[in-house]
Amino acid sequence: MAAVFSDNSYARLPDRFYARLAPTPVTAPKLVKINRALALQLGLDPDFLASPEGVEILAGNRLAEGSEPISLAYAGHQFGNFVPQLGDGRATLLGEVLDITGQRRDIQLKGSGPTPFSRRGDGRAALGPVLREYIISEAMAALGIPTTRSLAAVLTGEPVVRETPLPGAVLTRVAASHIRVGTFQFFAARHDVEGLRLLADHVIERHYPDAGSYRALFERVIERQAELVARWLLVGFIHGVMNTDNMSIAGETIDYGPCAFMDAYNPETVFSSIDQYGRYAYGKQPQIAGWNLARLGEALMPLFDDDEDKALEQANQALQRYGDLFSAAYLSGLRRKFGLFTARDEDRELVQMFLKSLMDGGLDYTLAFRRLGHGEIVVEDPDWAARYRARLALEPQDEATRRVAMQAVNPLYIPRNYRVEAALTAAIEREDFAPFEELLAVLARPFEERREFAAYAEPPPDDQPAPGERFQGLGGSPSQSGHRPLRACRASASKWAIFSAASLSHSGKLFSSKP
Length: 515
Hints:
By secondary structure, the chain is of the alpha+beta class. It has 17 helices and 12 strands.
């Protein structure tokens, strides 16, 4: 077979950017899933990947031709606290491929063994978190949201010990790149201006070739993050751990740990036991993204100007656009969800009234919009219903056109946590992957109603425990399925409004040039 990897451009950067090491072999690799469609998009042969030789590569037991395995160094703010060295503690970047469109894509193994960045961890992953990331990342892709992808999941034949022994697994992740806000922070914390410049030049060449300056690079990242977080909110997605080391410079959703999709609408919903104070709640994600971007601006300041005051001014000027960019993307997306093709000043209030009614009634976010697309008014607010009908009357499109457009942006099927947990439990406890496969099939076409999968559209049954029993990502201290408990906060009655640029402006203020 021809070389799998065409390059590893990141490995051409200086050695301080990464550690060179191969994955640690496993005892008895066994294929769980190959993403055949994605393999073909990458120009890879899915039949080869599913062969014994291919599975050996996906498990980390052998290197494909052209591979230059490295684990990347980075730093990051974790729950607001700066950690000067993190890095790939359980992941190995094997190399890069050019997909069928000519785009460069990273291929990385997660759970591939200890690295110099493991910080006393075992470098391995449990099956539950591997399957969760596979499910959620592929669901996000089907929803049209920029995301890393999952190419394969492989059992290792070895247990990983968390609170109990769990089956080990390796995930093959595909990304535009694995460069993070925390990657820039790593060099800024060391006052390594040369490293910052080399990294920024690499990012410009790879992701933002139209950026003619380092400030323009910062502005492009801001634009992509504003659009990305708006898309999260439009489908009810909660990332869970928006640390700066979990924020991709390429503008993709990355690192699916304690993430979930919201059921009943509530801006303060939190799906992570480790987020005790709700820092990364659903409704706080726009502000946190602005805060993270401010940390990126701080790291980049030495490249803006030698004069610190001038550099700070440039960074803040760029950052002030974030609030308007996010608000415009979010409100535009909401108009599409409501079937509004034109923009009017009263739209914001109309949206706010609807969201307040959803929260007051404890209504399901996804189904409320889906049913609205069928002409069903789900909120018990006659005044709102009358105003909405009057607003629709001002639109140039007919009802049939509007309904088709609404159903194309309002999904029927999302990866509801109770469904995900059921699939993980079957795989872990009974080695039954049929629920996992069926859930993937449902989520691959989220906007298309299929009667045989009607049950997958339903919210959690009333007798389900509050949202989930087990939750965490590839690391942490998991229980049976490799997850810590989920929790959901109840919002105060006033916290339902959509987000304005003014409400976001304070979140992006730079503190200083030093992280």
